[in-house]
Amino acid sequence: MELNVYNTLSRKKEKFEPLNPPFVGMYVCGPTVYGHGHLGHGRAAVNFDIIFRFLKASGYKVRYIRNVTDVGHLENDADSGDDKIAKRARLEQLEPMEVAQNYLNSYRDDMRSLNVLPPSIEPLATGHITEQIGLINKIIDQGFAYESQGSVYFDVEKYSKSGDYGKLSGRIIEDMLSNTRNLDGQGEKRGALDFALWKKASSEHIMKWESPWGEGFPGWHIECSAMSQKYLGERFDIHGGGLDLMFPHHECEIAQSKVGNGQDPAKYWLHNNMVTVNGQKMGKSLGNFIILKDIFSGNHSLLEKGYSPMTVRFFILQAQYRSTIDFSNDALKASNKAYNRIMNGLMALKTLIYSSENVTLSQEAIKIVNDACDGCYDGMNDDFNTAVTISHLFNLLKKINTYQINPQLVGELDEISFNRLKSVYLLFVEEILGLVNENPADKEILINAILELYSDFKLNKQYEKVDQVRAWFKSQKLVIKDMKSGIGWSYEE
Amino acid sequence: MELNVYNTLSRKKEKFEPLNPPFVGMYVCGPTVYGHGHLGHGRAAVNFDIIFRFLKASGYKVRYIRNVTDVGHLENDADSGDDKIAKRARLEQLEPMEVAQNYLNSYRDDMRSLNVLPPSIEPLATGHITEQIGLINKIIDQGFAYESQGSVYFDVEKYSKSGDYGKLSGRIIEDMLSNTRNLDGQGEKRGALDFALWKKASSEHIMKWESPWGEGFPGWHIECSAMSQKYLGERFDIHGGGLDLMFPHHECEIAQSKVGNGQDPAKYWLHNNMVTVNGQKMGKSLGNFIILKDIFSGNHSLLEKGYSPMTVRFFILQAQYRSTIDFSNDALKASNKAYNRIMNGLMALKTLIYSSENVTLSQEAIKIVNDACDGCYDGMNDDFNTAVTISHLFNLLKKINTYQINPQLVGELDEISFNRLKSVYLLFVEEILGLVNENPADKEILINAILELYSDFKLNKQYEKVDQVRAWFKSQKLVIKDMKSGIGWSYEE
């Protein structure tokens, strides 16, 4: 089985061949921590989480870097003319970093809820000022950046002569230039498309550092170039991020690395698509923007109720990462049902035991199971197509449910196929898709205890009690299952 | 009520008067992330967590900085002569930062388990190279540090003429000098007590940065001075850490700040005491060292079983932070019982309702309740004496348990005292001591459902079933309580 990935650089699917197998270096643009993470952040993180998980499950030794942008737009608006505020000194003035830490903690909490694995290294932009200054100096030395009034800009026009500017996004520099108003004589920049590598800090600015060009702070794009090369080397395997970062952010990263290090930073560029609401892009400006915490709690006008983190994770995984996902309550409700079905399958799977007593092999059943197992791998190997993988998991689930109701039927499989069914279902659900049972084990012990009492009530024909327990189960969104194999229960689907 | 804190600088308790009320700046030395956190790390974090919590509950606006030491002792032993390894390039060579991230994630997980609040800002040493270089430059400019073969050392002998070296730890420089072998002519240092502000990196060293003195990495002590002043200003209220950090680490911090900024960094220096095992200091070298994860799982030869995070938290809080704590299975078992009693009190409290129908005021009972409430505050106000506060909580608990069994008795209190009992118990248990119910709410719903069935069995004299449920409860470490007020349950104490 061969892994193919869609490379934005070439606009086609390519065979995945890492630079130094079995090592894979992957860099993904993380959040800017000045607000709580929203569904778009959740999607990007989950999409690259399953790529990280699948590469590891495929035997690669992956170093996954996801950065945190904690400097850029934070400013202090303190009225410096007011003596009382001045006296409170640094304790209040330094608030931006406390705000960043607060939202970073919030983001990490969300990631934990969504069962997103922590990346191998989670570097902060403010933690790599030295490295960013170092790379800026290299770019200046190569003659592709210039200082202007304490700031440093990248000279896009000069770089574009190499023909590389636009290679990722497909934009044509002449078109961009003709669409840009000329700021002749007004700004610090030589060309309208030039972007800042370093910005001079005004005196009110709190987040600033010493540099060869005076006190300032790094530009938007340089952090990712500096941190990716620090932890993965000047050339690495995968660079990922949301589609909205392709231009200008990733285009600028390529420019910085090509000038600074003489080569393209990444072999494969992967971009996840956006979340839409009723077909419209989800965004702050449109007011259709939902933070993850609100989705979990249900506290938002667009939400009919709260949806659990695993429901949201499943909702994200139902689409391949390059498709858009349309948010709706109906879609989330459907995801919740499907997620519960998958979890009920996990519970059922644990009760299934292969017995060599009732073997009546069915070549058709054996083929169904093995095709579905292959299909799980094939889906992921085809550019991480979780939608396809999930459809094959449901084929396995049909078999699991059949065998739970009628355990003798497992005899239609040979033992190897039976064991493969079990191990592939577990591997893909838990390890690769990262879907885990949200209900604590304690709870299931208690449910089993009640079910034991229920069985006795039934046996003793205490139908009032039987009804009482049934009603109670229903209120807890649990289902009692009367099967040939005995009485069991499952989560409502 | 006035807060008094023991200041290591003055060796006595002092009235706590922050520099800029209501703001409080607190800096505490955090972990070095090259191993899993152990009980000593847990103790330090919990001790300063309750100080953070109590200051906030007292109305202060606290900025709490707890750093992460992620550079210092990590080296790469790669055999650079081997071509294959050289080819694997940076991906494997950069492992130290991945290791640091891994243990930092582990530490954060432990802190979450122990219900330690995240600090306001959690700065990394590697994230503040620029700031450390800046402070070193200031110290060189003042003539108290010198460069030697690419490293920079602090001149302790010169500084000691100010009379300040030893002011925190009480050490006398002449004694230290006479105990030190003279390394004349051998080392880079001028004086045997001089400490490194910056170390030249050897070519194998991976964690290194550009500096005015060539490639290197910061010394052990400078990070805390640089980061505390960055986020709290040159002078702030509280500096905390373990007693083992008093010398040389904190003594050196004072020296660096006094020379660099012309003043003592902190007004109050607080030090938590150590954990001992059978009276012996817990430490790696003695082999009596237990990591937090092992305590939770029970996977260690010194442990008879695992102890839950809240049991460990309670164990730590049973002693005042300046006393030693002796680790033993008996002590942890006792902590578990006591913690369960406190939690049962929380559950009981929620069922208590004041009724104006059966009021028969008892001045004695009113006094007991109000004295215990005052005692909770007094304990914390007396240098954060959690041991005293907990003893008063148990006095409140006695009353809560009495009222649960016999609800009519609440009438011995006036309504104000009754409400005070409830709010003080809740405030101190949950907010200030940070003790929370480890059992999920779901579980309690299920237990109540079973208890309902149990009540019916009892009513219908189905004694076999009654015994069955009783046995099952026992197996789950739950206790059925037959009380005047009805049938209830609690966690086994």
Low-confidence stretches of chain A: 73-92
Report helical residue fraction of chain A. Answer: 40-55%
- Rg of chain A: 27 Å
Give me the CATH superfamily of the largest domain in chain A: HUPs
Structural class from helices and strands of chain A? alpha/beta
Largest interface: A-B, 52 and 53 residues
- The CATH architecture classification of the largest domain in chain A is 3-Layer(aba) Sandwich
Assembly type of the chains comes to homodimer
Number of helices of chain A: 17
Beta-strand residue fraction of chain A = 5-15%
How much is the average pLDDT of chain A? 89
Find the count of extended strands of chain A (DSSP E, 2+ residues).
Answer: 15
Largest sheet of chain A: 4 strands, parallel
Distance between the termini of chain A: 34 Å
Describe the structure.
The structure is a homodimer of 493-residue chains. Chain A is of the alpha/beta class and 493 residues long. Chain A has helices at residues 39-57, 83-87, 89-93, 95-113, 129-141, 156-160, 173-178, 222-232, 246-261, 292-297, 309-317, 329-351, 363-381, 386-405, 415-432, 441-459, 463-475; strands spanning 4-7, 12-15, 23-28, 61-66, 145-148, 151-154, 195-200, 216-218, 236-242, 266-272, 275-277, 280-281, 325-327, 478-483, 486-491. Chain A has 3 domains: 4-272, HUPs (Rossmann fold, 3-Layer(aba) Sandwich); 277-432, Isoleucyl-tRNA Synthetase, Domain 1 (Orthogonal Bundle), CATH 1.10.730; 441-491, no CATH class. Chain A is elongated, with a radius of gyration of 27 Å. Residues 73-92 of chain A have low confidence and may be disordered. In chain A, α9 (246-261) links the parallel β9 and β10 (266-272). In chain A, the strands form 5 sheets. Chain A has a 4-stranded parallel beta sheet, with helices on both faces. A 4-stranded antiparallel beta sheet of chain A has the order 5-6-7-8, with helices on one face.
